[in-house]
Amino acid sequence: xxxxxxxxxxxxxxLIPMVVFSIYYRDKLRNYSKRFIFVTSSICLLLSMTFAxxxxxxxxxxxRYVILFFGLVYGGLQTGILLxxxxxxYRAYIGGQGAWVAMLxxxxxxxxxxxxxxxxxxxxxxxxxxFFASIVFSLIPLTLTYYFxxxxxxxxxxxxxxxxxxxxxxxIWLLMTLFSKSVADKEIxxxxxxxxKVKTMSHVAASLAHEVRNPLTAVKGFxxxxxxxxxxxxxxxxxxxxxxxxxxxxxxxxxxxxSISKPLTQKHEPLDLSAQLISIRDVMxxxxxxxxxxxxxxxPNIPVMIWANPDEIKQxxxxxxxxxxxxxxxxQHGAVLLKLVKKENEAVLVIKDNGVGMNAEQINRLGSIYFxxxxxxxxxxxxxxxxxxxxxxxxxxxxxxxxxxTVFTITFPGMAEKEAGSSW
Length: 424
Ligand code: ADP
Ligand code: MG
Hints:
The structure is a single chain. By secondary structure, this protein is α+β, with helices and mostly antiparallel strands. It folds into 3 domains: 3-194, no CATH class; 209-261, Helix Hairpins (Orthogonal Bundle), CATH 1.10.287.130; 269-420, 2-Layer Sandwich (Heat Shock Protein 90). Helix content is 67%, strand content 13%. It is built from 14 helices and 9 strands. It has helices spanning 3-13, 16-24, 34-50, 64-94, 99-122, 126-148, 150-155, 157-228, 233-261, 273-290, 310-328, 360-365, 381-391, 417-423, and strands at 53-56, 59-61, 269-272, 293-298, 305-308, 334-342, 346-353, 395-401, 405-413. Strand 1 and strand 2 form a beta hairpin. Helix 2 packs parallel to helix 8. The longest helix has 72 residues, at 157-228. The protein starts with a helix and ends with a helix. The relative contact order is 0.08. Bound molecules: adenosine-5'-diphosphate and magnesium ion (MG). Residues 319, 323-324, 327, 353, 355-358, 362, 366, 371-374, 377-383, 406 line the site of adenosine-5'-diphosphate (ADP).
């Protein structure tokens, strides 16, 4: 293989962490883990050493310093040490006259990498640190190789003073900048989704505050009646019952609201979709009333179990219902219907509204990030919701006609009864 081809191959390996990150974390609302860094760096290291550039048998040159540096920066010391062990074992296995020198060089470069990785993490000028690292990772191996094999280095001078430093510098620059860019994009997205959640819930809260006033007024009225007429015990008991009902209803709406607006967690568990829909109806009814929209929920009278994260599912349902209510806000007799059907292996939720509807172009763009037709919309509600649904193996389909309304059909993979029972 020509040297240029070998170099292109090595550079190609530096793209692996970024590419795998984009694919694996696409539907996830969290950033990379140390395990992910270790696995991708390990694969990179093995590939890079297997297809290393070499002009003489037994002496190989690859981007190992770059990969170990990457492992240290993103995975910490533990990942770095594990990669170091992997390198030593594999280099010993490959063998050849350069094996022991390679290990010595690697040990020295590794201790310097420890320092540079700390510098990288603490510094605002990451490009400068990356540049500094590329000089260190080029000069130290060159000097030491020359010290042990002077005549060999002099014979292949261009290879050592141009080819290897260019390969190392390009490799480190690509690996560090591309990966940090992907990670930063993911962080921005996670922050946006969290802000969107706060925004959505604050809209709902505004209508809720309004709704809570009604039962309070009723309770106040009945308490006044009780105060005025303490003699009639039968009536007294009736009034107290009404008051208790009102207070209980308000309390349950408020606690549902609080459970939806709390921060997202990661846990998945068996979840009764039927019960979730009822609580979503309680929380979203005030919002529907405020927009003069009728909100109805039809659920089977049996639990419909799915395996999911309750916080995420509640948020997804709020997003769909809120959109449907907003779509009906300016139509007469606006109505939103949520219908849940239990099928053999799945639960099917239909969310139907008679609102403004969408044209073909809008339907096509549904779910893509930042797509919104509202003046104060964020276009993140559906992006997030689609991700959550796809991540648990569900599907979303949509049928819509302008000025007629929209029907979203969401399927959730069901849980077998036995499975659901045994998990509790
Ligand atoms: P936002 O609500 O902030 O605009 P979403 O991601 O929730 O963002 O929705 C994106 C867009 O999809 C909305 O702006 C709207 O144009 C369209 N949309 C979603 N649901 C409906 C619906 N039920 N009826 C009509 N249009 C809808
Ligand atoms: Mg929305």
